[in-house]
Amino acid sequence: MIKTLSLTLLASGLLLSGLAGAEPFPSTYEPLPSSPTLITNATILTGDGQRLEGASLLMTGGVIAFVGEGDIPDDAETIDAKGRWVTPGLIDVHSHLGVYPSPNVAAHSDGNEMTNPVTAAVWAEHSVWPQDPGFATALAGGITSLQVLPGSANLIGGRAVTLKNVYATSYQQMKFPGAPHGLKMACGENPKRVYGSQGKAPGTRMGNVAGYRAEWIAAQKYLDDWATYEEKIADGDDDATPPARDLKLDTLAAVLEGEILVHMHCYRADEMMTILDMAEEFDYQVTAFHHAVEAYKIADELAEANVCGALWADWWGFKMEAYDGIQENIAIVDRPEGSCAIVHSDSSEGIQRLNQEAAKAMVRGQHVGMDITEEHAITWVTQNAARSLGILEQTGTLTPGKMADVVLWNGNPFSVYAKADLVFVDGALVFDRSDPAVQPESDFTLGQLLEVSQ
Question: What pTM value is reported for the model?
Answer without folding.
Answer: 0.95
